Structures are given as C-alpha cells and as structure tokens.
Amino acid sequence: MEESIGKWRLISPFFIILLLHCIAILLFTRGFLLTRTELSTFSACSDITNSPCYNPNFNLTEDQNQNDSRVCWTKPAVDRVVIIVLDALRFDFLASSSLFEGEKKPWMDKLQVLQNLASDEKSSAKIFKALADPPTTSLQRLKGLTTGGLPTFVDVGNSFGAPAIIEDNLIHQLVQNGKRVLMMGDDTWVQLFPDQFGKSYPYPSFNVKDLHTVDDGCVHHLIPSLYEEDWDVLIAHFLGVDHAGHIFGVDSTPMIEKLEQYNGILEKVIEALKNQSGPGGLHENTFFIVMGDHGQTLNGDHGGGTAEEVETSLFAMSLKNPPASIPSALDTASCVLDSNGKKVCASTIQQLDFAATVTALLGVPFPYGSIGRVNPELYGLSSGTWNGPVLSASDHKQWSDLEKWMQNYANVLCINSWQVKRYIDAYSAASVIGFSLEDLRHVADMYDQAQNNWSRKSGNFSLCGNEIPNESCDASLTVLQGKIDAFSNFLASVAELARSKWTEFDLKMMGVGLGIFVLSLFVHIIAIRRSDKLCQISCPSDGDWHISLRVISAIFLVAIRACSFLSNSYILTEGKVASFLLGTTGILNLRSSIVKKETSIEAVAFLLLNFFLRFTTEVGLSKQEGLSAFMNLYPLRMLAIDHGHPVLTFVSDIVPMLVLILLSYLLLKSTADNHCRVVLKYVFNTGAILSYMLIALHWALESNMLTLPLVLKHVDRDYLPRLIYAIGLGLLALSALTNFFKEEMSNYTESVLTKTISMLSACSSTVILLLGRQGPFIALACIIGGWCITRLGLLEVKTKHGIVGVFTADPLPVTQWSLFAVCLFFSTGHWCAFDGLRYGAAFIGFDEFNLIRQAILLTIDTFGVSLILPILGLPLLVVLQYPYSQGSGGTQGRGIFFVKLSQVFLMYGFITATTTMVTIICVTLQRRHLMVWGLFAPKFVFDVVGLLLTDFIICLTSLYHFCRVEDGTK
C-alpha cells in the first residue's frame, strides 16, 4: 500500500480538474458572453440620397445646392461644440437639491454656476438626468456615447487597456467630415480613438489615488484653447470626482473640494465662451455641454446597474439667444420651486441618444451602428435648429416658427429612423443569430407605419400664417406631432428590443461547457472515493454513523447555499446567507458540546466571531456608510464624538498597529514548539515580523496624528509597500526552494505545519497592506476562525473509547472553512460586482499604471482573505487533527496523512465547483432576465474567476506539500 501512494497519484486529479474547468468555462463563456457583431460599415454623406426621407430643402444649408459635394444628412445647427466630461458625475451633484426629498446633502448645490444658468429664463440652458446603460464602467460608457450603441458585458474586461473602437462612431464621423477634434484629459480617449484627434493632451487615468494630475492638465490646456481657432469640437475629460469617490466616498471633504473646484473652472469656461459669443465672435454659434459618463454609489463605486450608478447628469447651453419653446408633448422637464421661489427644472435623456443628437447638431452622418434617437429637448436648445429669428411669446408668428421647427425635427427623425432600420437589417443579415423573425417583423411594421404616415403628408407646407392661430394651424401641428410620435415609437421599440436581446447566446456551446463542468464534478467525486480506497476504508460501522451524519450536514449546507443563487434577492444578500449558514454550524457545534457535557469555549468564540463578520458585512468595514453608521451609534453621539474627532482618529491609527503586534506574537507562539527546519522557521518569522513593522511605519507616514522623526517624513511613501512586496516574494521563493532539500520525514506533521505557517506568513503581509487598516483585524479574525474550526473538529472525532477508526477527512470542517472564507470576502467590503472592486488597492506602492502589476495587486486584494489564505491554510485541518488518528507512525501513517490532506483539498475544490456550477445554471436560465448584466453576469464572472484561482492555488499547494511524499512511501 505504501508504494501505491505516490506523489503523482495524489496530485494528478487536481490538474485534471483544473484542465476540465478551463475548457468548460471557456466554452460556456464563448456561448454566454459573446459580444455583439461589430459591423465594419461606416456612414457616408452620400448615403442620404438612398433614404426615403431625403429632401434637399431640409438637407442643404442656404449656401449649398443639390450638386454640392458637401451635401450631408442634416442642416448644421452649430459651428462648434465644447464637451466637458466630469467622470462619475452623479445626478444630485448637478441638479438642485430642491428636486430631491429629504434633507440637503453636503455634496449638493456645489455646481451653482450651472444651476443658475439653467434656471435663468434669459439663458438657453437645461439640466438633464442622463440615463446610462449598464455596465457603468468608463470604457463602456465612452464607447456607448460615441457609437450610439449599447455596451456589451464582455467589454468590461477591457477597462484596463481599452482597445481601439473599430466600428463607426462620432469621432470618426467628425474627422471624416472635416471637423477638427481637440482632446484633453483621460487617456482612455486616445486608446479608443488613436490617430483621430488633431491635438490631444492625454493623462494617465488609472491611478485612483491621484485626484489632481488629470484635472490640472485639463485646466492647463482648456482655457487657452477656448481662444484658439484650430478646433471645431473640444473634449475635456476630468477625473477628480471619480477618483475621490473611489478613495474617500461621496460624503467626504475631498469630494466637496473637487466639486467646488469644478464650479470655479466652469465659471471661467463660461466667461470665456460668453466674451466671444457676440456677432462675428469665435463662439457666436458654439454649443456647450457638461456631462458625466456614469454615476456612482455613496461608496464611490460604479460598474453595476443601480439607480445611483446609471443616473448621471448633462448640462447643455446654446450661446445664442434662447429659442422658442418646443411642444409640451416633447418636453420631459420636471419642475419645482426652490427655497427662494425660483423655478428649477430637470429633463430626462438617454445616453443612448447622445451620438445621434450631436451628429444632427453638427450636420454629419449618424454613426452606422447608432440606435439612439435625436433628443428633441437637446436638439431644440440650439437656435440653429429654428428656421427664423427668435420671436417673443406675444408674436403670433411664433406658431409658424414652431411649425417649421417641428417639420425640421420630423425630417431629422425620419433620417434617424431610416439609419436605425438599415442598421438593424444589416446586423441581422451579418450576425450569426441576430434578432428573431417575429421581432424583425414587429420592427418592420412599426417603421412602415411611420414611413407611410410621413409619405402621406410630407412636404414643405405651412398652415400657420402670420395671423392668430386657427384650427388649420392646430391641425398642422397635430399632424406633425403624429409623425414625430410614430418615429419616436419606432426608435424606442428598437432600443428596448436591443436592450432585451442584444447579446447573442450560443446555447449549444453553453450546453457543451455545462456538460464538461458536470463531468468535472464526477471526477471530483471519483477522486474523493479513490482516496478512501487508498486508505483501505471498509464499510462504516455503528461507531461511524456520527461521521456519516456530519457528511449529510455538510452536503445540506452546500446545497442550500448553491440553490440560493437561483434567486436574484439571495445573490444580493449572499454574504448574509453565508453568515447564517456558518452561524448554523456554530450552533450545532455548541449543541453537540453541551450534549457531551463538555465546555467548548471554541463554539462560543466561533459564534461571536460570526456575529462580528455579520456586522462588518452589514455596514462595510472599509466603506463610507459603514463609518457613518458606526458614528451614529448612541454612545458616540452622547459623547459628541464624530468621525473627525481627534480621539477617534488617533485610536483608528493606533489600534491596527497594536493588532499587528498581536499577530507577531501569535506567529511566534504558533512555531515555538516546532523543531522542524529551525533555521528557516526563524527566517520566515523575522521576515513576516519585519513586514508588519514596515506596514505600521507606512500607515504612520500617512497619518496626520502621529509625530515621526523628521528623517522619516522624507521617506518615499511608495518605497515601503514595494519593500513589503519584495519581502513577501522573497519568502515565497525561499519556501519553494526549501522543497529541493532532503529532510527527515519522520516528523512530517511538523514539517507540513512549518511549511503551511511559513507560506501564510509570507503572503499575509501583502494581503494586510492591501486591505488597509482593516487588514490586521481581518487577519486576526482568520486566525481565530481557523483555530475554532479545527478545535471543534477535534472535539467531534473524539469518542468515549478513544478515536474513531476512520481515516477519511471530515467534510463538515471543510464546509465551515469554505463558508468562513465567503464571509471574509463580504466583510472586507467586497461583493460580486465590478463596483465591488477596490481599485485604490491596486496602486498602493505605485503611481504608474501597469496592467499586469495592477491586475495582480487587485486580485490579491479581492481574493486574498477569501481564497488565497484559506486555501494555503487548509493543511491545518489535517495537521492539527492528525495526532488523534490511528496509524500515525511509520510510512503507513505518513501515506495516510498525505492521502487525507489531498482529500481535504478535493473537498474544498468540490464545494467551490458545486456553487459555481449552480451559478452557471442560474445565468443560463436567467439569460433574458432584466438584471442579467447588472447582477447575474457579474456573479458568474466572479465565481468562475474564483474557481479557476482556487484550482490553480490547490495545484501549486499540492506540489508544495507533496513533493517529498515518494521519498517516504517507497
């Protein structure tokens, strides 16, 4: 038997399972997250002659004729456009606080200059609530804004290295039609549109700790550029608000300061524009837009589909005199009176409509893939869309002007609809799957109805004369409104169809992937049963029933958690579900100890720890609202302590450092009685404790409360984190090298214990540093939780007559270990969504962006305490329980020990794979669900990434621990 238990017999199942999972996930992902087909066709000015809406009277400017080569789709209404993008601009950052219920928040009413312009009746300015389509990452939003299409979920992965847009887009149309585009700010624009800008001043955008570099660069170039004539469209993308949100949250001083800074910048911009807006001035016919690409939660996160994330702001103003009012049927404004009795309003616009509206204003073709509608309120703000001088409300000729504007807008919508219809037809013909015949028939019917309505009563006629409006005039406006409504309904129908069925699902490929995944679970089960045979386990006896009951309990817990993923509500509260199940196991352990009349401090401690994790999951230990909730506790309010109180600040700086000292003591204590690899043990202990000291020094340098020697104040703050990373990497390399040295295997349990603690100490410093000041507390929770789970497992395997004669690993502690890891993930402020990623952690120690480096740091921060440390610590479940097992001596005991260790790894991987498989089944069933891209797909991505990472770490850890197995078994 000893010779049969070789290294590769124990390790090979891990690599087979990893390979099966990679193939299954690759195939399923190719079927589930296919991007929409990007057509290579580009719109051209000459295309308009093929449109049934083409009418030279509408499509030519006054100085053009039908043979003019400059003929294009719509009459240019503006000469220049200034677009200022304020990244992550929430709607309540710009809109008046009077539009919101409840008390005024500190971040409201800071952009006063825009609010005053929008509420001034003499100004042609409006504030819009702009609705974005999830996912709300910056790349997807910029792509959607410029192409006029909907984002695809799989593009989220490109957010850290944007590929150039290859389909038709707003920037391409501007450049192709002679418009000079100037860009400054976020360098994502240059990545998306290389070689498209006449001039560009890009700045690195991914260092979320940097609040000022990009903004200062924009300010440096923006104001001088407003006095230059070498551009037609200016784009300035500011990032300060987005970065302030990620690091500090919305309700923070840096956020308020940023908004106030923006208000001052916008005042200077508007002043420069107005000074040159007179007749013959540089900005006589300039259109000014201030907008956000997406919103953000109170934590400063974005990426999902919540209202806070998809609701952003848009301010638009024409520098010419305000035009007449558009028809009330097209006006979406919601108005209230503020505290001064002044009317404040806000309209609504879909970001999907931005590209079509801007191209219509500039008179260039719509991007070929655009499915947006020319927004009437934004389009009507420009005086250039009105065919005559602006008249007062008392002049009856305004009715004639309104009729002409509605004719013009109806013509624009006709062209808009024709473009969308030809794109949908081309897409369905080119795409593998496309839209269903029923959907295409419905779209075609709506378009034909709108076109028939247009053809019957089209023409450049006017029933509204210069006299008092009459019934004929009313009838004319009604007819025009009917045309507008028909085209608007068609465009809205296409947009809704695209939102519901845009992504192409290859069900066959998804089915094959799911089938291979199920096969991997059978491989898991076979490998676990094979471990039993290697240990020569016979049929369970009467004394083994208790173990069998624990197996049933473990299966039941895993099944409940897995099935909860079939509900979107339970996915949203996944952390609470895991905490509840973990607490249930704690109660069962407490009951068992009471029944056995044994005092179990571990069971009580485990329940208290679970309560702590549940509390931190509720309020978010690292989040802004978590701090706010904590500060609202009655005792703190009674003592008049707020979040800025010096005492609380001092405590928050000192206590994490004290916990680091406690962690150092526990590390020394855990290896004090271990005599295996003495020299290496001291090397690892010294390296880990040195890293803890450097972490404390790093935090002290960042603190404003702690007084440090003058020489330390000049230490580069990036140097210490890099040194900590280097020490950790060095310790990991040393751990790997020690496996090449022959050792005495008689003390194999001590050897595995030393190697496990060494690996944990090498990795823990980096994880603690990335987690911030909550890191030491979480690390301490990991130690307490691991100790409780192992000790409770030991209490269960004891019987009145000694030890249960079974070598099979107990699955219940492994299940508890897995649930505990899930609770740690949520208690550290993470969740399964892209706005749950803590991007700031990726830049601790670095200011420059490097895709691989930052991805590694972000992965360690995200999965450090939920995957990396728990998997590295799995051997403790065997090492600390093994002295109670039979046959612990000699080569037979050593072989059984490593078989049992491999079975623990298999059980943990099986639990992770089972929950992931249910997630895959869930997204398959819910692929047409309204929340598929906002909730189910992010959960799928996090789970499959977590599973592959779990498999990979298990493979490495098995190589690390089993490399010397053959030396002792043969």
User: Span between N and C termini?
Assistant: 9 Å
The largest sheet has its strands arranged as 4-3-5-1-6-7-2-9-8
Content-based structural category: alpha/beta
Mean pLDDT over the full residue set = 80
Global shape: elongated
Q: Could you estimate the helical fraction of the residues in percent? A: 55-70%
Q: What oligomerization state is this entry in?
A: single chain
- Secondary structure tally, helices: 35
Largest sheet: 9 strands, mixed
Low-confidence stretches: 60-70, 155-161, 389-396, 537-546, 621-641, 799-807, 884-889
DSSP, total strands: 11
Beta-strand share of residues: 5-15%
State Rg. 33 Å
Topology summary:
Layout: H1 7-32, H2 56-59, E1 80-86, H3 91-94, H4 112-119, E2 124-131, H5 138-147, H6 170-176, E3 181-186, H7 188-192, E4 199-203, H8 213-225, E5 233-238, H9 240-248, H10 253-275, E6 286-291, H11 307-310, E7 311-318, E8 334-337, E9 343-350, H12 354-362, H13 376-380, H14 397-430, H15 437-456, H16 471-501, H17 507-534, H18 545-564, H19 568-572, H20 574-595, H21 601-619, H22 624-631, H23 634-638, H24 646-671, H25 678-702, H26 710-713, H27 719-738, H28 748-771, H29 775-797, E10 798-799, E11 802-803, H30 811-827, H31 851-872, H32 875-879, H33 890-925, H34 932-962, H35 965-969
Parallel strand pairs: 1-5, 1-6, 2-9, 3-4, 3-5
Antiparallel strand pairs: 2-7, 6-7, 8-9, 10-11
Helix pairs in contact: 1-17, 1-33, 1-34, 9-10, 14-15, 14-16, 15-16, 17-33, 18-30, 18-33, 20-21, 20-30, 21-29, 21-30, 24-25, 24-29, 25-27, 25-28, 27-28, 28-29, 28-31, 29-30, 30-31, 30-33, 31-34, 33-34
